[in-house]
């Protein structure tokens, strides 16, 4: 089983817990964060293999966190999977436009989340 670290970031504690339990059952180590500022602190400390990142969050949204990761020389190789209700038409693209910015997420999962689909995507980025 994998020992890769996955960071789950969402301001919905129930969603964080459900995703975390599924990841742990698959053998991943899991860290949790509940807003974008806390997420960036953990990303800089832990350098996870994958960040599962909600778009709409307090203090710093998912678009901003993704941009910060992908524009950082030290962090840019971390895979970012955005969770969003607005991206179901761009699930397999490597970017989308939001407020005129290009976001370089590695993947998208629409809400409500299909946990099996999310596990497949995480597995693809951890192989």
Topology of this protein?
Elements: E1 5-9, H1 13-25, E2 29-33, H2 36-46, E3 50-54, H3 62-70, E4 79-84, E5 96-98, E6 101-103, E7 107-110, H4 115-126
Helix pairs in contact: 2-3
Describe the structure.
- The chain is of the alpha/beta class.
- The chain has helices at 13-25, 36-46, 62-70, 115-126, and strands at 5-9, 29-33, 50-54, 79-84, 96-98, 101-103, 107-110.
- It has a 5-stranded parallel sheet, with helices on both faces. It has a two-stranded antiparallel sheet with strand order 5-6.
- Strand 3 (50-54), helix 3 (62-70) and strand 4 form a beta-alpha-beta unit.
- The longest helix is centred in the N-terminal third of the chain and has 13 residues, at 13-25.
- The chain is globular, with a radius of gyration of 13 Å.
Question: How many domains make up the 3D coordinates?
Answer: 1
Strand % is 15-25%
What is the CATH top level name?
Alpha Beta
Which strand order spans the largest sheet, edge to edge or round the barrel?
2-1-3-4-7
- Based on CA inertia axes, which overall geometry fits? globular
- Could you tell me the mean pLDDT? 87
Tell me the quaternary state.
Answer: single chain
Provide the structure class.
alpha/beta
Q: Given the structure, what is the number of helices?
A: 4
């Amino acid at each position: 089983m994998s020992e890769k670290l996955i960071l789950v970031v969402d301001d919905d504690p129930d969603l964080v817990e459900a995703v975390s339990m599924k990841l742990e059952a698959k053998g991943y180590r899991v860290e949790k964060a509940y807003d974008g500022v806390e997420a960036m602190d953990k990303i800089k400390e832990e350098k996870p293999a994958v960040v599962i990142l909600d778009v709409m969050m307090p203090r710093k949204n998912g678009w901003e966190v993704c941009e910060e990761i992908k524009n950082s020389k030290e962090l840019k190789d971390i895979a970012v999977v955005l969770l969003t209700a607005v991206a179901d038409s761009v699930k397999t693209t490597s970017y989308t436009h939001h407020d005129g910015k290009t976001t370089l997420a590695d993947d998208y999962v629409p809400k409500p989340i299909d946990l099996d689909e999310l596990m497949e995507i995480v597995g693809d980025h951890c192989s």
